[in-house]
Design a protein that fits this description.
Mean pLDDT: 92
Number of domains: 1
Strand content: 25-35%
Low-confidence stretches: none
Largest sheet: 6 strands, mixed
CATH topology: ph1033 like fold
Order of helices and strands: EHHHEHEEHEHEH
Radius of gyration: 15 Å
CATH architecture: Roll
Strand order of the largest sheet: 2-5-4-3-1-6
CATH class: Alpha Beta
Distance between the termini: 24 Å
Shape: globular
Length: about 170
Amino acid sequence: MNLLLQPAASDSKGRCNFYRTIENRVSQRVLAQSLRPGDLTSLASETSGKAPCAWGLRDDSAGRNQQTFDRLESGDLVLFGGVKCAIAWGNVAWKAESPGLAVRLWDDPDHPLRFIYFLAPVGFFDSPVPRSEINKCAGLEPDRVWAGASFVAPESTIPVIELLRIHGFPKIAA
């Protein structure tokens, strides 16, 4: 299992997107407008038929986000960062490259988050987990800002999860 640190709600645009597709999930109607029927079936199977949560990565000139997306696997753990803290977590259930769906989800046609991953389950921490504590457990500088999605070294995944358990992980969203 990989552990991905994902900035999400540290600015107004990120908070808006987080609200749209993590807190409120993605409607089947929106998915049906952009995904092929077979993909809808696969996604429904991976999320037990529940409306999924979704997040995405932008295309970048260095190709780093595509590499991150390609490395993501079903079951990987994603920590979503707010301002100086982690506020939620989710397990990757399925992924798709879909600029059209990205525009529908996040309304940013100039910079679509076209590498989309769907999450199930998703949980929210009872209280935010300080980013500095997560960074220390992950072998990073405590003040390191989560700028862009980044994987934690495999040997640091267990210490980070142990820290998260102190803060109520996992608490699965209804």
